[in-house]
Amino acid sequence: MQYLITLVFLVVLAFYSNFIGKLFEKLRLPSLLGMMVAGLIIGPYGLDKIPDLALKISPILKDIALVTVLFIGGLGIGVDQIKKIGRPAVCLSIIPATLEGFTIAYLATIFLDFTFVQGAILGFIIAAVSPAVLIPAMVNLIEKKVGQKKSIPQLLLVGASADDSIAITLFTSFLAIYFQGINGGDFNLKLQLIILPISIIVSLLVGACVGYIGSKSFLLIKNIKIRLATVFLICLGLRYIENRFHFNLYNSLLTIMSLGFFIRYYQKEKYKEIHQGMNNIWKYGKIYLFTFVGMAINPRLIGGYFFIGVVILFFSLTIRSIGVLISLIGTDLDYKERLFCIIAYLPKATVQSAKAGIPLQMGVIGGEIMQAIAILSVLITAPLGAIGINLTYDRLINRD
Predict the structure, then answer these.
(1) How far, in Å, are 52, 173, 201, 282, 360 from residue 204 at the CA level?
(2) Contact 360, 325 (CB under 8 A)
(3) In terms of domains, do 21 and 75 share one?
(4) What range defines the domain where residue 34 resides?
(5) Are residues 55 and 67 in the same domain?
(6) How far apart are CA 375 and CA 43, in angstroms?
(7) How many CA atoms lie within 13 A of 44 on its CB side?
């Protein structure tokens, strides 16, 4: 009976969340904000009207949607564009998140009386840009032919996909350093920093290999529906491997984006058939992704840390923005386009919703404060980034 109730709930949820999203669009706000608000209203920290089974499968549904949009993002990147964005994309994946994470670590020692390690745990929860907000927005700009002459959406897509790897790796590293300090053990940070670039290279190579194998096998399937289903199942399988085995040298989201890139490379113009099919899946996937992200937000946690959290976020986002400008040194972007990149790199949602409660669950001292400020970062930056992208892309970057 619970399966039937959950199925009916998910169908009703799609209509309800999509309706709220449309209302926000009429107010000239991004629909994703409406979907997040819809999730917040009926979620565990709102009216609490979610069946238990729906909450249990929500991580799976979010993963499926995230896989879809990352793959679409990869399909939107051409070889000629990679040649333009190579160095700045690498810089965008490393510099802004690293500067922001360590800025928060330092500020936490002043405002929250944390040790630097505790501050770094908080810093690298917050430092990750949200693929759930940024990537759909950039895919939308690619479809509208905006910023294609300088490959601005592609630049931000590639940078954001690796940005999360940097932030999550440093988060887990400082978490391990914290517990090693308590238990009197040693933690090899140098080894972790060596593993990080290797994991990025390995992930890209896995995507390239799967794409090459596909060019000799499943990409030759004539029936587009079967070909699309095969590609989609392979993407989900690549994500499942990471979720199941947690390999240090493998980032499934980066692999899936690179697979999209190599399928476009091997398929030439025929990649558009897969692209259209994935877009149809995303129409429904985005509803569940943003709604379930909204359900994970607990505004009640913020409480007495609102003012301190806002101060920390103000300084950290300022340093993050400087990191974006540093990353774009040497590019042909004008000042308006650089400003757009800063705005696009502000939003946080997915990683923060998923990681905010981990320090508290693991018994880190100050874990409840970390959770509160991480949730605050979502409430402030997700609307700021999403609305900012929506309102400024027409004014700051050119429609080709």
Answers:
(1) 37, 22, 5, 23, 33
(2) no
(3) no
(4) 2-59
(5) no
(6) 15
(7) 14
Question: Position 278: which residue type?
Answer: M
pLDDT digits (tens, 9 = 90+) for 161-195: 778 778 887 887 888 788 876 665 555 666 766 77
Q: Is residue 158 located within the same domain as residue 248? A: yes
Distance between CA atoms of 312 and 319, rounded to whole angstroms? 11
Q: What is the pLDDT of residue 192?
A: 66
Q: Is the pLDDT of residue 211 over 60?
A: yes
The pLDDT, as a whole number, for residue 388 is: 92
Amino acid symbol at 245: F
DSSP collapsed to 3 states, 196-257: HHHHHHHHHHHHHHHHHHHHHCHHHCCCHHHHHHHHHHHHHHHHHHHHHHCCCCCCHHHHHH
Q: Is 146 helix (H, G, I), strand (E, B) or coil?
A: strand
91 vs 80: CA distance, rounded Å:
19
In this structure, the answer to whether residues 26 and 100 fall within a common structural domain is no
If DSSP states are collapsed to H, E and C, what string results for 366-387?
CHHHHHHHHHHHHHHHHHHHHH
| pLDDT of amino acid 308 | 94
Q: Are residues 40 and 81 in the same domain?
A: no
39 and 69 share one domain: no
pLDDT tens-digit readout, 141-157: 988 888 888 889 988 98
* Predicted confidence (pLDDT) per residue in 354-399, tens digit: 788 888 888 889 988 998 999 899 889 988 998 999 889 988 887 6
Kind and range of the H or E element at 176? helix 152-183
CA 310 – CA 373 distance, rounded (Å): 9
Quick one: the chain helix, strand, coil %, rounded to 5? 80, 0, 20
CATH number where 105 lies: 1.20.1530.20
Structurally, the chain folds into a number of domains equal to 2
